[in-house]
Predict the structure.
Amino acid sequence: MLTKGSKAYSIIKMKCPRCHEGDVFFDANPYHFSQFGKMHERCPHCDLKYDMEPGFFLGAMYVSYGMAVAIALPSALIISALVDGLRIYQTVGIVLIEIIVLMPILYYLSRSIWLNIFFGYKK
Ligand SMILES: [Zn+2]
């Protein structure tokens, strides 16, 4: 599944969606905050321009929102099922902390997914 040529490879490895060789981000670890969010303007390998129009990555916010909801809802259900006596605000607080901790990963993944929606793999 994680072989070169699949979208999952490009998304998870944060590689260029066209050639699967060049890096999208300067540092693929989203928790290295000194380099956080710094992207190459173009693919260092095939010269694909990532930000193809101004505001292109605004759409990645919708992807990020969807992933956050997809994580938050099951988490809230699991937490309330496993821990007795939690009030709703405690459950929401735990889920909020979880989402805040995961936000750098969601940010990177959403941009990678967004790029892969618009570009396909070419050998
Ligand atoms: Zn490339």
Notes: The mean pLDDT is 95. The chain has one domain: 7-118. The radius of gyration is 17 Å.
